[in-house]
Design a protein that fits this description.
This protein is of the alpha+beta class. The protein folds into 2 domains: 2-65, no CATH class; 76-182, no CATH class. Helices cover 45% and strands 15% of the residues. The protein has 6 helices and 4 strands, in the order H-H-H-H-H-E-E-E-E-H. It has helices spanning 5-19, 39-65, 76-80, 91-99, 112-121, 167-182; strands spanning 125-130, 134-139, 148-155, 158-165. The strands form 2 sheets. Strands 1-2 form a two-stranded antiparallel ribbon. Strand 1 and strand 2 form a beta hairpin. The two termini are 18 Å apart.
Length: 184
């Protein structure tokens, strides 16, 4: 059931809107004479909502017994609530913004290194060896098309190439964060 946790949560949110007379697709009010505003249908929706609450609570209890959730679970509704800083941002800043909307009872927090690993896997970023066994993440020929750039930053007074995400990069990450986190 854990793999379906995000789907259950998203379905529950859509059913709650329907039960309260709101179209979950465009947030408009459902016409008062519509079938979905019939009291019998509304009662059935609330029965389903109670069932989903029970299932989600069971899954949360199972998750709590394991100490911590072991994967990132995000819904489309949570992604819509992400507020990113203006201007170019680092992957850590993106991860921090995502973590503000994550439900930590069912999802582990996101880190920039996890996102970078996924982006390297699909060829948007590259890893380069430095000083023997050490590596660092760098942009490649594909990066710019995804809104990912390199700019000079300073750490302990020394310059280095910092990877940043411009508006196109932030849009790409927001649009694909759910599928990136679902891929292995």
């Amino acid at each position: 059931m854990e793999g379906n946790q995000a789907q259950l949560l998203e379905s529950k949110q859509a059913l709650e809107k329907l039960a309260h007379g709101i179209n979950p697709i465009d947030e408009s009010a459902i016409a008062s004479d519509h079938l979905l505003n019939n009291p019998q249908v509304i009662r059935h929706l609330f029965v389903l909502l109670n069932f989903l609450d029970t299932e989600l609570t069971k899954n949360q209890k199972k998750t709590n017994r394991r100490k911590r959730p072991n994967k990132v679970v995000l819904t489309a509704e949570q992604v819509e609530k992400i507020v990113l800083p203006k201007g170019p941002i680092s992957i850590s800043e993106f991860a921090q913004a995502v973590n503000l909307v994550i439900d930590v009872t069912i999802s582990k927090k996101l880190s920039g290194s996890v996102i970078n690993r996924k982006l390297k896997k699909i060829g948007v970023l590259t890893e380069e060896k430095i000083d023997g066994n050490k590596t660092r993440t760098v942009v490649n020929d594909n990066s710019n098309a995804y809104g990912i750039e390199s700019m000079e930053g300073y750490y302990n007074g020394k310059p280095y190439q910092r990877i940043v995400y411009n508006d196109l990069g932030k849009e790409f990450l927001l649009k694909h964060i759910i599928s990136l986190m679902a891929s292995d």
